[in-house]
Amino acid sequence: MKQTGVQDVSRQLQSAVFSSGLTTKLICLFCIIGYFLSYSPRCVHILAVIPGRVMPPNFWIWTFVTHSFIELHIWHTIIDVIVVFLYSKMIEPLWGTKELLRFYFIVTIPNALFATCIYFLFYGFTFKEEYLFQRPIYGLAAFIGAYSVVIKQIMPDTVLATTPFFKLKQDQVPLLIILISIGLWFAHAVPIHFLIMLSFGIVISWTYLRFFQNHQNGTKGDMSATFSFASFFPSPIAPIISILANTIFGLFVQLKLCKPFVKKYNVASSSGLTITIPGPDAADADRRRQKALKALNDRMKAKETANESWPDLDEPNQIPFIDPAQNSSVTIDMTDLNESTSGATKEDLNQPFFDIEQQQQQQSSS
């Protein structure tokens, strides 16, 4: 069983490597190169984000781009490469190379900026200079967290594993990896910036996909209920998260940072009720909407079939019902028929006799 599982993973990884696009291959190649560069402390100091170095007068702002390619441990690099190859195999054909590259920079650059601000807060509370100069920010944790959000958007109801106690769905992966990273941080297996970058990567990617991503069908964002922020949490606490998220969204709308949510109903459609919701292209999130509409149409067809199964009271081959209370005699109006028959009889039957009398008179006169 273990050999079969390893063979399946290796086969999928080989297929992903050969079928992946240029952006995916470049990201993985830079991650491998960054791992070998990490053996030099000088390269780590120059390429990773050092909060004290991005401030004036240094302005090492290029580290916001290069920090994601640096990894200090080989198992971190292996996980990064495997996740990027496997997930990009599904995402890049749907989005395209440019959109995937844009998504990468949208997630990683603001994430490094937020992590830097968190380190500044740590320094403000503790006055320890190690948060400014001795704790670099590096790694691809933000992009891995963002990938978990994208897969949740594309396949929200996918069951990843089934156990006797629970079923692991794709909806639960983002929160699960945050909990796992918290446990690894307590075990000193990952640094604090890994947890910060992973969490902010999930939040930033969800915000971009929810409100700002442009799609080929002219829509923006994904306002479907299955992609709400409350759907990331278990059902017992989802209503509380929903209230908090709706309050923050209303505040963003008032500040004109987001547009209000608008639904468009096309009641003139010939195929029933059509709902147009701002969201991804039909290749990804519309798949679940089409599934819901298909279920609705099937129910409507089943209802129509049930109505058609009742017998019709006016079937043409059915014998007409005669009320016994009415007169059972049948009256046929023969007036027109008698008149036409009597007229034809007088003319047709008497005509030969008139012709014989005329012939006898002509013979006698001669």
From TrEMBL:
<keyword id="KW-0812">Transmembrane</keyword>
<keyword id="KW-1133">Transmembrane helix</keyword>
<protein>
    <recommendedName>
        <fullName>Transmembrane protein 115</fullName>
    </recommendedName>
</protein>
<feature type="transmembrane region" description="Helical">
    <location>
        <begin position="21"/>
        <end position="39"/>
    </location>
</feature>
<dbReference type="InterPro" id="IPR013861">
    <property type="entry name" value="TMEM115/Pdh1/Rbl19"/>
</dbReference>
<feature type="transmembrane region" description="Helical">
    <location>
        <begin position="229"/>
        <end position="253"/>
    </location>
</feature>
<feature type="transmembrane region" description="Helical">
    <location>
        <begin position="100"/>
        <end position="125"/>
    </location>
</feature>
<dbReference type="GO" id="GO:0006890">
    <property type="term" value="P:retrograde vesicle-mediated transport, Golgi to endoplasmic reticulum"/>
</dbReference>
<feature type="transmembrane region" description="Helical">
    <location>
        <begin position="137"/>
        <end position="155"/>
    </location>
</feature>
<dbReference type="GO" id="GO:0005794">
    <property type="term" value="C:Golgi apparatus"/>
</dbReference>
<dbReference type="Pfam" id="PF08551">
    <property type="entry name" value="DUF1751"/>
</dbReference>
<keyword id="KW-0472">Membrane</keyword>
<feature type="transmembrane region" description="Helical">
    <location>
        <begin position="59"/>
        <end position="88"/>
    </location>
</feature>
<feature type="transmembrane region" description="Helical">
    <location>
        <begin position="176"/>
        <end position="209"/>
    </location>
</feature>
<dbReference type="InterPro" id="IPR035952">
    <property type="entry name" value="Rhomboid-like_sf"/>
</dbReference>
<dbReference type="GO" id="GO:0016020">
    <property type="term" value="C:membrane"/>
</dbReference>
<feature type="region of interest" description="Disordered">
    <location>
        <begin position="300"/>
        <end position="366"/>
    </location>
</feature>
<feature type="compositionally biased region" description="Polar residues">
    <location>
        <begin position="325"/>
        <end position="344"/>
    </location>
</feature>
